[in-house]
């Protein structure tokens, strides 16, 4: 059983191997080797293992469920118990790059133990193996639990909240570290309490010849593994026997806005979209994730009395709401055919979706921006906060349609979904990063105007920056929407084909992949995904420098340098961001030029 | 077919997927005001051909004319006359049947009153009023076909192209759908259906085309295609797949 499933999984994995996967594996291996190299102390190891475990818990949510294509439903009709299937699937789960990379990382425990002596080294071998088993099982159980709770809107909210908080904390680790230091939390001791670190406890105890603790820690790991396996078997049983499907609820209701919309084609599309936003649990999940992420990110610093983040709450929510809607057309799946059958409906469809996204996101995020800025008491923050909010709304409204039309992802059609966001959603990491990077790029002109106003102490220039943000935001929404519906008008059938089959082109010639195509897309994604980091750091440092606010976060690290180096460091950061954006745009243009002849060919052949 | 107006005319339609040609220059003529059946074995290229004929899949070669209008050159005019039920494509799944029809009607530019009346009538006729509060995602396979048919009829097209409208539909609903389509043809409309239900095709259609391996194996009036036998016999003969299961599977009879 295990051998058959493992071979099946390896075959499926081989079918989907592409440049993106290989790059991910390389990056993972680098991290694993870094864990082995730098994991010389218990503290570092404990922190590293906690991060690896967190990766296993969060990862499947963004990468399509982590089951590698082996869905339990495929095995429903085999005459075997759920427990036996769980064991077989667990064995198969080890076949793949993720577990191998994690095994390399966890081997650092053996190296660590061997340094302490022969016996600790020997204890470390089963301890590391048990840790690996634990994190992989925990990951499977979490995916299973998501399937249990994500069947209702309330479930989607409940799942979104903790996940968003964890990711917000991870993306603002400097604040978390400061908060822990402030409240005098002994981080390394608390980290050792976490189950994925019990192996370290066992190895350390073996070094002290404290066999009671050593055996207890190992037994604890074994017990947890048995419990998780039992839990997973139970979850699999419920999933396969149709118990879950019976519990699926279809949320109804229109919300506040739908009854107010007039009976026009545009409003009809907007009403349909608003209903989907409130009734589709996958969309609800993305929306509540955005709210929880924005609130967590910006309220967390209050723990160390830092009100500095409050003004950006609304912009952060908008940013994440856009990232969650980067698959807007893809979530509707093949329902696109209805638009294609209505003469001239492409424009209405795109504009209606934009309108609905704005109606959904704008009220809450604008209130968050205004309230956050007012509560922060930072008078200087009004122009940048309003500017960022305006441009994020405009660019977001434009990019959600543009990205989802330009980079469609095949998803199961709504009536075929399992209801589990982790299992239904495709790998959208690249799209999310591209969205974040692109909105940052769109915010550049107005951010530059507001920052210049700050540096030169010109109030008028700062407010001109806000006006610029409103104008450019509206421009982005108009322009990107226009490109999107033009694309639908000229290549609608091709987009439908992609959503239907997952393959990219219908013509014989275009079916042949373009040389260097995957590599270029990876490069664009990487550049857009990383470019905003140095830029944001530079802007925040610059604002801090101008307002003489004492710096306390990771983002303003240039201000920790000697005074003479601060401005050059900021300049280098801006230059680095610009270079990355230029590379991304140039690669994108090359890609579009390479594509153009094929589109023309397919048009002519008709 | 003389000088009869053609509701649908396919000429030399071809499609290749990943190096495999699935439709080889198909040509078909559907006279206006007729009930036209498209039959063929699984994988013969029926759905691909109908997708190309309705503007959902761009052909690599060939033309499609809907009442003389080139669909791929003037899609707006051609599609306005066309009602389509594709096989196995999604709908806005979170909407109820009435919400879906209202959305589509308004998108077609119909006024609110007309949309409400047509939606009510279609839902009642197709027996979907009982599921008033169920979103399309919660529909059974047969109900999905019926709401799909309602979306195709909503804007009063002149030509209906329906891919497998009777698949997974119970006999009572199949009779309702047949009656609706028959009435549509009687009042001057034209219908193209693809189906595996030979008896239904034989009863409803005046013209039939048999597609085998992406080519038209035979096309013409039903009587001419079936000859002296049944349509099923003609189909099996043309598909070249007479009963081949005469031996093997001995392990099944233990």
In short:
Chain A has about 600 residues and is mostly helical.
Ordered list of secondary-structure elements with their pairings:
The complex is a heterodimer of chains A (606) and B (254).
Chain A: H1 2-16, H2 19-38, H3 42-62, H4 82-93, H5 97-106, H6 108-116, H7 118-149, H8 153-170, H9 173-182, H10 187-193, H11 198-207, H12 211-240, H13 243-247, H14 265-279, H15 281-299, H16 313-324, H17 328-331, H18 336-341, H19 345-376, H20 382-406, H21 421-424, H22 429-455, H23 459-501, H24 508-511, H25 517-547, H26 563-604
Helix pairs in contact in A: 1-4, 2-5, 3-7, 3-10, 4-12, 5-7, 6-7, 6-11, 7-11, 7-12, 8-15, 11-12, 14-15, 14-19, 15-16, 16-19, 16-20, 16-22, 19-20, 19-23, 20-22, 20-23, 22-23, 22-25, 25-26
Chain B: E1 6-17, E2 20-31, E3 35-39, H1 46-53, E4 61-66, E5 69-70, H2 75-80, E6 82-85, H3 97-107, H4 112-125, H5 141-153, E7 159-163, H6 171-186, E8 190-194, H7 198-204, E9 207-212, E10 215-221, H8 222-226, H9 231-239
Parallel strand pairs in B: 3-8, 3-9, 6-7, 7-8
Antiparallel strand pairs in B: 1-2, 1-4, 4-5, 9-10
Explained architecture:
The complex is a heterodimer of chains A (606) and B (254). With 606 residues, chain A is mostly helical. Chain A is 76% helix and 0% strand. Chain A contains 26 helices and no strands. The two termini of chain A are 51 Å apart. The C terminus of chain A is likely disordered. Chain B has 254 residues and is an alpha/beta fold. In chain B, 35% of the residues lie in helices and 25% in strands. In chain B, the strands form two sheets. Chain B has a six-stranded mixed β-sheet, with helices on both faces. A four-stranded antiparallel β-sheet of chain B has the order 2-1-4-5. In chain B, a hairpin with a 2-residue loop joins β4 and β5. In chain B, α3 crosses α4. The longest helix of chain B is centred in the C-terminal third of the chain and has 16 residues. The model of chain B has no long low-confidence stretch (mean pLDDT 89). At the A-B interface, α14, α18, α19 and α23 of A face β1, α2 and α3 of B.
């Amino acid at each position: 059983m295990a051998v058959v499933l493992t071979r099946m999984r390896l075959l499926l994995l081989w079918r989907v191997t592409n440049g993106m996967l290989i790059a991910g594996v390389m990056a993972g291996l680098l991290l694993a080797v870094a864990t082995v190299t730098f994991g010389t102390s218990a503290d570092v190891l404990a922190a590293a293992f906690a991060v690896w475990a967190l990766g296993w818990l969060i990862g499947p949510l963004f990468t399509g469920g982590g089951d590698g294509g082996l869905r339990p439903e495929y095995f429903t009709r085999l005459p075997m118990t759920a427990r036996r299937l769980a064991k077989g699937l667990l064995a198969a789960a080890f076949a793949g790059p993720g577990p191998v990379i994690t095994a390399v990382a966890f081997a650092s425990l053996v190296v660590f133990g061997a340094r302490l002596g022969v016996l600790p080294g020997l204890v470390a071998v089963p301890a590391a193996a048990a840790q690996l088993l634990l994190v992989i099982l925990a990951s499977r159980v979490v995916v299973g639990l998501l399937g249990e709770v994500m069947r209702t809107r309330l479930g989607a909210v409940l799942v979104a909240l903790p996940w968003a908080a964890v990711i917000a904390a991870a993306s603002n680790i400097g604040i978390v570290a400061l908060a822990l230091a402030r409240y005098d939390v002994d981080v390394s001791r608390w980290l050792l309490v976490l189950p994925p670190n019990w192996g370290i406890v066992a190895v350390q105890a073996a070094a002290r010849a404290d066999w009671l603790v050593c055996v207890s820690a190992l037994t604890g790991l074994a017990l947890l593994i048995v419990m998780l396996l039992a839990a997973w078997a139970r979850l699999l049983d419920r999933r396969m026997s149709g118990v879950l499907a019976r519990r699926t609820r279809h949320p109804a209701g229109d919300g506040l806005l739908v009854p107010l919309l007039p009976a026009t084609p545009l409003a009809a599309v907007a009403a349909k979209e608003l209903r989907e936003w409130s009734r589709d649990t996958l969309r609800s999940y993305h929306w509540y994730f955005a709210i929880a992420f924005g609130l967590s990110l910006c309220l967390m610093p209050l723990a160390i009395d830092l009100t500095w983040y409050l003004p950006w709450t609304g912009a952060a929510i908008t940013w994440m709401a856009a990232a969650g809607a980067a698959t807007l057309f893809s979530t509707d799946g093949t329902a696109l055919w209805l638009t294609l059958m209505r003469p001239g409906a492409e424009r209405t469809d795109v504009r209606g979706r934009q309108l609905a996204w704005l109606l959904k996101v704008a009220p809450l995020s604008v209130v968050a921006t205004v309230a956050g800025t007012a509560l922060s008491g930072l008078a200087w923050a009004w122009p940048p906060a309003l500017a960022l909010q305006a441009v994020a709304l405009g660019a977001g409204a434009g990019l959600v349609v543009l990205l989802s039309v330009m980079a469609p992802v095949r998803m199961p059609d709504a009536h075929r979904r399992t209801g589990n966001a982790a299992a239904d959603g495709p790998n959208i990491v690249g799209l999310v990063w591209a969205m974040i990077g692109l909105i940052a790029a769109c915010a550049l002109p107005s951010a530059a105007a507001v920052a210049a106003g700050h540096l030169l102490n010109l109030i008028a220039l700062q407010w001109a920056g806000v006006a610029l943000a409103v104008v450019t935001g509206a421009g982005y929404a108009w322009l990107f929407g226009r490109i999107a519906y033009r694309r639908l008008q000229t290549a609608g059938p091709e987009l439908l084909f992609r959503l239907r089959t997952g393959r990219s082109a219908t013509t014989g010639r275009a079916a042949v992949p373009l040389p260097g195509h995957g590599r270029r897309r990876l490069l664009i994604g990487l550049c857009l995904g990383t470019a905003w980091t140095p830029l944001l750091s530079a802007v925040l440092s610059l604002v801090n420098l101008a307002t003489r606010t004492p710096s306390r976060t990771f983002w303003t690290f240039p201000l920790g340098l000697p005074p003479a180096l601060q401005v050059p460091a900021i300049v280098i950061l801006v230059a680095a961001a610009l270079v990355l954006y230029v590379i991304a745009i140039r690669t994108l243009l090359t890609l579009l030029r390479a594509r153009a002849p094929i589109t023309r060919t397919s048009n002519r052949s008709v | 077919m003389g000088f009869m107006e053609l509701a649908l005319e396919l000429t030399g339609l071809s499609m290749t997927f990943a190096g495999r040609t699935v439709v080889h220059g198909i040509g078909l003529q559907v006279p206006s005001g007729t009930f036209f059946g498209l039959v063929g074995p699984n994988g013969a290229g029926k759905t691909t051909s109908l997708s190309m004929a309705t503007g959902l899949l761009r052909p690599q070669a060939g033309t499609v004319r809907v009442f003389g209008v080139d669909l791929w050159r003037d899609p707006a005019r051609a599609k306005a006359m066309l009602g389509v039920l594709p096989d196995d494509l999604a709908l806005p799944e979170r909407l109820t049947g009435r919400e879906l029809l209202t959305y589509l009607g308004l998108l077609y530019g119909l006024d609110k009153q007309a949309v409400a009346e047509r939606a009510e009538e279609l839902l009642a006729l197709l027996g979907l009023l009982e599921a008033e509060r169920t979103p399309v995602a919660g529909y059974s396979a047969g109900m999905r076909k019926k709401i799909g048919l309602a979306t195709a009829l909503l804007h009063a097209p002149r030509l209906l192209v329906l891919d497998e409208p009777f698949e997974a539909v119970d006999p009572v609903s199949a009779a309702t759908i047949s009656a609706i389509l028959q009435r549509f043809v009687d009042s001057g409309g034209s219908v193209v259906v693809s189906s595996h239900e030979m008896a239904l095709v034989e009863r409803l259609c005046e013209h039939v085309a048999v597609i085998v391996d992406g080519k038209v194996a035979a096309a013409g009036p039903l009587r001419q295609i079936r000859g002296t036998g049944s349509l099923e016999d003609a189909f099996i003969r043309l598909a070249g797949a007479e009963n081949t299961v005469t031996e093997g599977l001995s392990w099944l009879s233990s």
